[in-house]
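Structure first, sequence second, as always.
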């Protein structure tokens, strides 16, 4: 059990640092590309969140799954949207990333880009078909409550 955690942490660390040579070495040793850490993050998520384009490209080329979600329902596009890296977002979408996916709080990648003030990412997501009218379930409940209190 402890060995699995070490293996996951090694690949996660290499992805977070953007160390493509180390990623390739670990994958050649048959380390699991989509291994999750304790928070459910995959190496691909960590590379995207840290703006490591070459690591993202390497992991996707080697078969990392962009649709996987962490313990909070975030996928790799949520992380790329939060960090605002449009080039990484393009790479993810070209490998099947889901532009309308929602995390456990009901947030889409567009909502996260808006929340974190990533205007270039917002524009990119809108140009790729994300809908600005998307609202989280929490937002809808708050609106309904507000309406019921005022009518």
């Amino acid at each position: 059990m402890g060995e699995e955690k070490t293996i996951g942490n090694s690949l996660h660390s290499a992805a977070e640092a953007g160390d493509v040579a180390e990623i390739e070495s670990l994958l050649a040793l048959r380390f699991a590309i989509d291994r999750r850490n304790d928070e459910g993050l995959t190496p691909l998520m960590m590379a995207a969140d840290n703006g490591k384009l070459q690591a993202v490209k390497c992991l996707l080329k080697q078969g990392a799954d962009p649709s996987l979600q962490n313990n909070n329902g975030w996928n790799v596009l949520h992380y790329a949207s939060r960090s605002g890296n449009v080039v990484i977002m393009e790479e993810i979408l070209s490998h099947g990333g889901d532009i309308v996916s929602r995390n456990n709080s009901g947030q889409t990648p567009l909502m996260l880009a808006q929340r974190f003030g990533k205007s270039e990412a917002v524009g990119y997501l809108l140009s790729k078909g994300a809908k600005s009218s998307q609202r989280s379930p929490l937002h809808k409940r708050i609106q309904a409550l507000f309406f019921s209190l005022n009518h």
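Margin note: The radius of gyration is 17 Å.
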